[in-house]
Amino acid sequence: MTDNLPEIPEEPIARTGMFGATGTGDTSGYGRLVVRRKPELATPRPYGGYFDTIADELERALGADFGDAIERVVVDRGELTLHVRREHLPKVARTLRDDPALRFELSLGVSGVHYPHLEGAELHAVIHLCSITHNRRLRLEISCPDADPHIPSTVSVYPTHDWHERETWDFFGIVFDGHPALTRIMMPDDWDGHPQRKDYPLGGIPVEYRGAEIPAPDQRRSYQ
Amino acid sequence: MSAPYDEEVTEGRVYTVSGNDWSELVDSLSGQQDQQLVVNMGPQHPSTHGVLRLVLNLDGETVTEARTVIGYLHTGIEKNLEYRTWTQGTTFVTRMDYLAPIFNETAYCMGVEKLLGITDRVPERAQAIRVMMMELTRISSHMVAIGTFGMELGATTPFLFGSREREMVLDLMEYITGLRMNMAYVRPGGVATDLPAGAVDKVGELLKVMPGRIRDFRKMLDANPVYLARTKDVAYLDLTGCMALGVTGPMLRAAGLPWDLRKTQPYCGYETYEFDVPTERSADVYGRYLVRVAEMEESLKIIEQALDRLAGPLKGDRVMVDDKKIGWPAQLALGPDGYGNSPDHIAHIMSGSMEALIHHFKLVTEGFRVPAGQAYASVESPRGELGAHVVSDGGTRPYRVHFRDPSFTNLQAVPATCEGGMVADVISAVASIDPVMGGVDR
């Protein structure tokens, strides 16, 4: 009876249960709770406010490259995010900075986010830009696979990215190609691993308190 | 002075100077033909403004290369946040820039509120309290900036003055929040607790005393010939340099651009307050000092307006969002130790309402869930734009929180402001950036 309906693709499971307990550990009845992961957002036009102006002007400035360079556009919570394909990043950044209609002169730096469940786009670099001329804000998001963690450096466009890219390399292992000296900045030079990645443990040791042992923070049973 | 290392070094001889041995060093250097001297300053050095390490290449007394090494105070706050609830996050972020804790908390909470979609529902009284606390903190932070600046140049009076004035603000903080620093007072949805009785009067007293104290600073430093000689035309960084390096805050305003988020992209109701954005055009250390002092005077104006509202039209209003699924339930009443629950609330949950008990328990142990997505919220901290990039996966704990700390970004201006100058001016250049290493390294 549902044969004539289009099939709704089931999103992958984000988590089951509420406490992270598997097997018989969870007696609450919530153990069979299944939470599915939301699909990636992509906002259709119109975006509203000055977001359309930014998109229009960028499309005009980039010309035929726009479709290639901008993977998708997301408008969420009053913020505009352009997902930029990594090979086009330096050109997009330079256009955003120099075009008189865009003029994003001030960059607020680069940070990273690790999404291990997004296959082929595990590592994200996030750049927040601000236009002082037009008083606008914009976020660029660039992804790269864990197996090939390379993103072109934008230090030549925004010199302030020097330390920010070093920090993102240090914490996430994203290699910014073309950075003048991509070395660790927070962790010691001989440190192993990249601490802000989700597969890097928080660390800590169990602590005994009045006869009971309190596990390290990342080992405690907790709500998910 | 210890003997030169016999270890293998890449270039030149190594001398270790540990104080009171300058003449020995000079003796051993006489007759040397070294043109370049590499001086390692810090990380434990009284004039590097915290655990900052500078590696300076000197040609005589001229700095030819300045390199900055950071990371000595890295505490992994951003990583730790991912293992606590959203509310517990304020306890962590307040420890980043420890001279301006309220700003960290407010930026973080604004980010969380944006994700929750409750920005418009945060009560006006809570916003006014946030504004008042932020401006008080701005005064105390600038007091430290100017005070330590004086001390690093060898003048102890500004430091004593600055510490005395800061103490007044910290006493107020203690009175209002229970803690002098790292108070975790601002919470997602509002503030932790309303102003205690008498707080308005105490802030009023500060408003009476502080203008005179700031005037004292001006009398002591504004036209002081020694001070002028050490600050005027030192560490010049013009607007182009500031833009390229992402420098914001007093440094940017001293280069002539009136860019202040409180005016340009207002938050917490700043658009309803009357104040000016002081600027200078000299782009040097002295200009930054003048901007900071003028900002303190403007902050006093804002505090006065906020105080009028808190004591007048907003009296008795809520300080936490009216949403039982988000608002912290405890309704703290401040005890003599700075902590304490309200007896009324305990009676309510323990013998009055089962639902209230469930809500309390769920909110405190599990915390609230934040819809998946990302948000960026920024405030004008004493050092520039402090931004919080907050990412949620829909759970009760942050998925990722990144702080765009102004100290971190502004410190990149050290080579631009120091190279080509005298070694003595390095101290004043670094101090005029006013980096707080807790914020730089996080």
Q: Could you explain how this protein is built, in words?
A:
The complex is a heterodimer of chains A (224) and B (442). Chain A is α+β, with helices and mostly antiparallel strands. Helices cover 17% and strands 26% of the residues of chain A. Chain A has a domain at 50-177: Beta Polymerase, domain 2. The radius of gyration of chain A is 22 Å and the shape is globular. The two termini of chain A are 37 Å apart. The model of chain A has no long low-confidence stretch (mean pLDDT 84). Chain B has 442 residues and is mostly helical. Chain B folds into 2 domains: 8-69, no CATH class; 77-327 and 368-439, Orthogonal Bundle (Cytochrome-c3 Hydrogenase, chain B), CATH 1.10.645.10. Helix content of chain B is 47%, strand content 11%. Chain B has helices at residues 22-29, 77-81, 89-93, 101-116, 124-152, 156-177, 199-221, 225-231, 239-245, 250-254, 261-264, 285-311, 343-352, 354-366, 406-410, 414-418, 423-433, 437-441; strands at residues 36-41, 53-59, 62-69, 186-187, 190-191, 373-381, 384-392, 400-404. In chain B, the strands form 3 sheets. In chain B, strands 1-2-3 form a 3-stranded antiparallel β-sheet. Chain B has a 3-stranded antiparallel β-sheet with strand order 6-7-8. The radius of gyration of chain B is 24 Å and the shape is globular. The model of chain B is unreliable at 1-6 (pLDDT under 50). Classes of the chains: A alpha+beta (224), B mainly alpha (442). At the A-B interface, strand 5 and helix 4 of A face helix 2, helix 9, strand 6, strand 7 and strand 8 of B.
